[in-house]
TrEMBL record, chain A:
The lineage of its organism: Bacteria, Bacillati, Bacillota, Bacilli, Bacillales. It is a multi-pass membrane protein. This is ABC transporter permease. GO terms for biological process: siderophore-iron import into cell. InterPro entries: ABC_BtuC-like, ABC_transptr_permease_BtuC.
From TrEMBL, chain B:
Keywords: ATP-binding, Cell membrane, Ion transport, Iron, Iron transport, Membrane, Nucleotide-binding, Transport. It is a peripheral membrane protein. It comes from Oceanobacillus bengalensis. GO terms for biological process: iron ion transport. This is ATP-binding cassette domain-containing protein.
Amino acid sequence: MRLWMLIIATIVLSFISLFIGAIDISLGDLLDLDSDKTQIFLISRLPRLLAIILAGAGMSIAGLIMQSLSRNKFVSPTTAGTLDAAKLGIMISMLFFTNVTYTQQIIFSFAFALVGTLVFMQILDRIKFKDAIFVPLIGIMYGNILSSITTFFGYEADILQNISSWLMGSFTLIIAGRYELLYVSIPAIILAYLYANKFTVAGMGEDFAKNLGLSYKFVLNIGLVLVAIISTSVVLTVGVIPFLGLIVPNIVSLYLGDNLRKIIPHTMVLGSMFLLICDIIGRVIVHPYEIPVNVTVAVIGSAIFLIMLFRGRAYAKK
Amino acid sequence: MIEIKELTKRFGKKSVVENVSVTIEPGTITSFIGPNGAGKSTLLSMVSRLLDADTGDVLLDQNNVKKWKSGEFAKRVSILKQSNYTNVRLSVRELISFGRYPYSKGRLTAEDDKFVDQAIEYMNLEDMQNEFIDELSGGQRQRAFIAMVIAQDTDYVLLDEPLNNLDMKHSVQIMKILRKLVDDLGKTVVIVLHDINFASVYSDRIVALKDGKLVKNGPTQDIINSKALREIYDMDIPVQVQNGCRICVYFNSHA
């Protein structure tokens, strides 16, 4: 697959995404700048498209960084407790502050995502049996433990309904003014690209990195901070999108390898494209209603993931 | 010159390396030999800064290795561990290019490319330079990793059991290349070996360890004899000379 093909496909899908929904909008309607349809376009459709593109690219890059640094193909923000920790952070911020502000939520969510991922990496460091499948299983269990803590205290404090809106990834509520946090993933992705070679070297192992004079711990920490930034921005705006950070980098790795400098652009674009397709499907099949994107991603993603497991076990272990 | 001075490393209460002092002669192949658990790999890791010593110092050109900047040290000393990760899908050429990382930080210059090309040619990897390393055989992959170290262009090349899992043909091939690195390019090679016959035939000096202690250190011909080998391995090993090579016949020996 060539990068330009992916980009063209994404642009086409973007146009489709802009012009489907409960209200029919045609290009001609946009000529009248004050019409309701133009307003809908600017307040709802365009922000939604931007949110999909940013979230798709961001989650895929976050997954890629985690797979590289943990040296396991099946580790991602959803299989290492990162997103569950971010959710726990949001819940605790709501417990602490009666009138919690957005900034407080961001700070708590970010701090928890960072610490939560760090803890997972520590667990990974300690266990001897580093099987390609075993490691993400531990991560999923760990994530579920964090998640159950969130549910328990959420239930006690009667804020469960508030929390459940973050459990479900959906672009339905994305309108202008409610997605802008996602823009922080742009500098995070740029930084990831600048650090691409360092991540690749770190992904070859600590001894390998030290041999080349790379400060392994520093690069590892930079990577985890980037993952936490991206995950927080996605959880707080869109919610949890499963599988994305898992399957997209793996598909790219299959045909392009693991040299991050080379694969980051592909991973970004493919991530956006995949999420766009899932969102469009969710909006089309029960038109004029919508299926939340996390459902379509989960259905399509788990199918691809299963294929990867069956066909790719040999590839992941080699 | 690398000087190892009274180096000690303990894991828990057990000393894995105890008070070892060795000077690595430049322009030679030095083999570390000894029974399992003798501390060979640990010693090599401390020399290359992968592990910190508890007491004692390692000096590179009279300066303590701990005081070297990582980037500068990586231009003088390279280490290849047996456990190098092979799951990563990099092409052979990409892997070798990372050998230039200490110089270029990933942005390859024309000069870097020249070094990479030379390393590929040196290790006969032209045909497979675009293949992924996880799809190669063990011997090919080992050659790719050694090519990376060659591209790193360090005066000192440290290798931890590079012959592991290799058949005889590839083992001989690797040892011949290391010999060439020393004889043609003036490098200094330090290598951990299990098969004493490879140590005997290809190395200039031998450092023998046992239970973390230095038992022998000297030119190869002074170590490869039944008396010295008995001290190292607790085995009676007859040594036969064949085409000028001292071969240890350790099969069927009386312990």
